[in-house]
Amino acid sequence: MQLDWIWEPILVVIGGTLLLRLAGRKSISQMTLAQVVIMIGIGSLLIEPVSGDSIWTTLAVGLILVLTLIIMEYVQIKSDKFEKFITGQSKIIIEEGQLNEENLRKLRFTVDQLEMKLRQHNVAVISDVRWATLEPNGQVGYELKEEAQPVTKKEFQQLQADVQQLINLLEPAFAKGFSIHILPENKEDIFTEVAEEFPKDNIPGHLQ
To answer: Nearest to residue 86, comparing CAs of 97, 74, 94, 96?
Structure first.
């Protein structure tokens, strides 16, 4: 009785797991183009033994693909030019709170896609972003302007100490009463745009 249909799938799973383990632990969203191509190639190869092709040939070809990927990654470490050619480089898409329309157009990256990425990082207003880049793996990196950055614990403790010192100095004024002026809240952000289901008027039409 032929038992190939039992042990071959088991060997495919084990061999495929070892090949992918050797290739690296990055998720799809973190992979470069070369890594995605290799992984797709391995996935296509692994199913071939089940349909009748030689399992050893398949695993050997898969190993060659992985070794090719490792060599390419090693060369990228040694050569910046080769890395830029294979992986690409980051592109600026926001500069000092302003959209870089030229780069967005070249990257075929719409403002809606950019806002989706920013919302995932809890960024509500594009004008709060000092720099934003589209990375080779498709992720958006950003730096907030100084006035929009969240307060650290150290900064908050320092603020508490400064406020307490100011209260001690102005204690007589507190006894007579004082008023606090609160700045109006900015209601227009990329979250309310989603809730209200209509786009902003200040977005260029060709980038929506």
So the answer is: 74
Residues 6+ apart with CB under 8 A from 133: 90, 91, 92, 93, 140, 141, 142
pLDDT digits 0-9 by tens, 123-163 = 888 999 999 999 887 889 999 998 888 888 888 888 888 88
All structural domains of the chain with their residue ranges = 3-86, 91-148
CB 46 within 8 A of CB 16: yes
CATH superfamily to which 91-148 belongs = bsu07140 like domains (3.30.240.20)
Whether the pTM exceeds 0.90: the reply is no
Contact 103, 110 (CB under 8 A): no
What amino acid is encoded at 163 in this protein?
V
CA distance 195 to 188: 11
Measured in whole angstroms, the distance separating CA 8 from the mean position of its chain's CA atoms is: 38
Closest by CA position to 47, among listed 8, 82, 76, 81: 8
